[in-house]
């Protein structure tokens, strides 16, 4: 009898322990040219983590500009293609954003990105006339969409690199919601999606990379459900004759951005918007980015400039912590 009671007690103990520790699952993968890491919490963690990885692989397979089997590759090669649901949805949303961002984001910038060698890694500084010639192919207004069919004007090519990770973040947050998970942190490499609170009830902390020392973080943002996208010149760049050329291109000039911005982080609820903004505000530079913010106010930002000033919108200034050892001058933007 005693043994039986003991067994029941042990059973109750184990059961209540399992019930209060949420199940969790973690996975890492390389995709979209970066390293990704996902942590999910809740009873459906096992399924959700697989769905998330499958979703990322599927999106990469459709959106990549370099994979010969992708829809975008097909479109770029043929000048016209009928695109599937996700791809056309992202193209349409991106076109809206190219417009509202005044062309600072331009998804047709691929011929220029490639000429500078940012695709092959075979970097070079093109001549002024080469850039002039290629700029004639860059203008998102010449992308025509008719239902699911996209047509590009001669020689144009699309690059969804500035928005693809944000779109993946949106789709994967949908999975987290559909699987009724308790919480999640999904790191798409530079674009991080958080959901709910950490299992211990505290807020997620999203670290922001130090552009001058990419193995360190200069600060972190505490978040609940949000997407934080960061663009930094440090992600891909090369140096030639003492000058640094980064992978973010000003679509107006065809040259890598060189405007005193070191990194831009954007926080909002939509991944594509966060990702598009982090690239576009970088292109605009601090002053124009601030103007855009004051007109729209549907996101928050951190802009770090060369003179180590950190501009932060007031909506997140209470959520930001500067790490020890950083003496950035913090400018709060109302
Ligand atoms: P990362 O991919 O490093 O996170 P971004 O989100 O800022 O950085 O996207 C940069 C990528 O987007 C570049 O590698 C290039 O393929 C493409 N790109 C560069 N400049 C622009 C631009 N002005 N508009 C749209 N896409 C761009
Ligand atoms: Mg981006």
Separation, N- and C-terminal Cα atoms: 70 Å
**Computed structural class:** alpha+beta
Bound molecules: adenosine-5'-diphosphate, magnesium ion
CATH architecture of the domain at 203-334: Roll
CATH class of the domain at 203-334: Alpha Beta
Q: If strands are numbered along the chain, what order do they take across the biggest sheet?
A: 1-2-6-7-10-13-14-15-17
Roughly how much helix do the residues carry, as a percent range? Answer: 25-40%
Order of helices and strands: HEEHHEHHHEEHEEEEEEEEHHEEHEE
Biggest sheet layout: 9 strands, mixed
Cα-atom radius of gyration: 22 Å
Give the gist of this structure.
The protein contains 10 helices and 17 strands.
Polypeptide structure, described:
This protein is an alpha+beta fold and 334 residues long. It has a domain at 203-334: ApbE-like domains (T-fold, Roll), CATH 3.10.520.10. The chain has 10 helices and 17 strands. It has helices at residues 2-20, 45-63, 71-78, 85-100, 110-115, 128-135, 164-178, 271-284, 286-296, 314-317; strands at residues 24-31, 34-41, 80-82, 143-146, 149-152, 183-187, 191-195, 204-210, 213-223, 226-232, 237-240, 243-246, 261-268, 300-305, 309-313, 320-322, 329-333. The protein has a 9-stranded mixed beta sheet with strand order 1-2-6-7-10-13-14-15-17. It has a 3-stranded antiparallel beta sheet with strand order 3-5-4, with helices on one face. Strands 8-9-16 form a 3-stranded antiparallel beta sheet, with no helix packed on it. A hairpin with a 2-residue loop joins strand 4 (143-146) and strand 5 (149-152). Helix 2 (45-63) runs antiparallel to helix 7, helix 7 (164-178) runs antiparallel to helix 8 (271-284) and helix 8 (271-284) packs across helix 9. The chain is globular, with a radius of gyration of 22 Å. Bound molecules: adenosine-5'-diphosphate and magnesium ion (MG).
């Amino acid at each position: 009898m005693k043994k039986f009671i003991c067994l029941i007690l042990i059973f109750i103990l184990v059961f209540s322990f399992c019930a209060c520790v949420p199940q969790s699952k973690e996975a890492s993968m390389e995709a979209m040219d970066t390293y990704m890491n996902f942590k999910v919490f809740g009873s459906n963690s096992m399924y959700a983590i697989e769905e998330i990885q499958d979703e990322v692989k599927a999106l990469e397979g459709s959106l990549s500009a370099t994979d010969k089997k992708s829809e975008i590759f097909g479109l770029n090669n043929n000048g016209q293609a009928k695109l599937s649901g996700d791809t056309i949805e992202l193209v349409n949303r991106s076109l809206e954003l190219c417009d509202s961002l005044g062309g600072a984001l331009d998804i047709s910038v691929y011929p220029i990105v490639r000429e500078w060698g940012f695709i092959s890694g075979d970097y070079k500084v093109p001549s002024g006339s080469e850039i002039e010639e290629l700029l004639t192919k860059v203008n998102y207004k010449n992308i025509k969409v008719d239902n699911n069919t996209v047509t590009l004007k001669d020689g144009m090519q699309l690059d969804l690199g500035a928005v693809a990770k944000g779109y993946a973040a949106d789709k994967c947050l949908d999975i987290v919601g559909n699987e009724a998970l308790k919480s999640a942190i999904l790191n798409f490499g530079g674009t991080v999606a958080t959901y709910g609170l950490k299992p211990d009830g505290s807020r997620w902390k999203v670290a922001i990379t130090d552009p001058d020392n990419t193995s360190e973080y200069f600060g972190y943002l505490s978040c609940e459900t949000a997407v934080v996208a960061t663009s930094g010149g440090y992600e891909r760049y090369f140096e030639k004759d003492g000058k640094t050329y980064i992978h973010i291109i000003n679509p107006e000039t065809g040259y890598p951005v060189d405007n005193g911005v070191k990194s831009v982080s954007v926080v909002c609820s939509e991944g594509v918007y966060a990702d598009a903004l982090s690239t576009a505000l970088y292109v605009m530079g601090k002053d124009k980015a601030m103007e855009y913010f004051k007109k729209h106010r549907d996101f928050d930002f951190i802009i770090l400039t060369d003179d180590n000033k950190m501009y932060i919108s007031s909506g997140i200034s209470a959520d930001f912590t500067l790490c020890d050892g950083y003496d950035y001058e913090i400018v709060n933007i109302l």
